[in-house]
Amino acid sequence: MTHKRLEPETLKAVADRFKVLAEPARLTVLNALRARPLSVSDLIDETGLNQANLSKHLQLLYAYGFVSRQRHGSYVHYSLADRSVFELCDIMCGQLKRHVAVRGHVSMR
After folding, report:
1. Residue 109 pLDDT more than 90?
2. Most buried one in 20, 27, 29, 65, CB count within 10 A?
């Protein structure tokens, strides 16, 4: 299979999306939403994040299209906009397991 080279602006857009996913708190939010849509209050309970911090992460996840939101009365419920983000996580988890098997540890920065 032949792959064409990606244009610089495409590489930048991909890198920006990976930066959004590079924050453990945002991955925690996505993981909490894996089972079902949740309100902000539910997400606070599920993630342990405070409201201000959670709101900041939700805003960024929404801006980049990782989550969608829907108003239900006075509550806003968030859900995954695209479940394929977990395919990326599965790929990375597999890569991490292989790395640990070969190196015997997880490398830290």
Report:
1. no
2. 29
